[in-house]
């Protein structure tokens, strides 16, 4: 599949590995893919991110990811659903952190060292790469670009899509920023 990636998409994947290395993560996650996309310049994805006002909001995105990790990876939607049945996630997190220290539920930030220099991709990150292929093929595109990675990140349920949605970047808004208001959900122009 990697042979179908454009040069920019390959740079994004390599950038995700660099993001993981920078923070000492044992594996490459969906979050690392998004952060690598934010560093790309001159691509369709960077244009869409800028159009949605996300280019200069790295600190805000980082804060949202930190809060999600603190909740053990639960999305805001998960937290709200649990609140609907009387479970206060913030109270539980507070009690766990009181007993075991701040960040006790944080996920994805191991201090393991990878002596080989290789960082594996999490199942979620692999799923995003596969989903980007489906997005590209669904649009009739032969190659996978950064824009397909970005759309896949917004379409896959989880923390990254949740954080992006909090910042106004849903599948629909990203699609509109990439292809204009006249394109339908499959990327084809609507009939007039």
From TrEMBL:
Q: Where does the chain cross the membrane?
A: none
Answer yes or no on keyword Flavoprotein.
no
Please give the name of this protein: Peptidase
User: Which stretches make up the Clp R domain?
Assistant: 2-184
Keywords in UniProt for this one? Repeat
Q: Give a yes or no for keyword Repeat in this entry.
A: yes
The protein's superkingdom reads: Bacteria
The organism is Streptomyces arboris
Q: Where is the signal peptide?
A: none
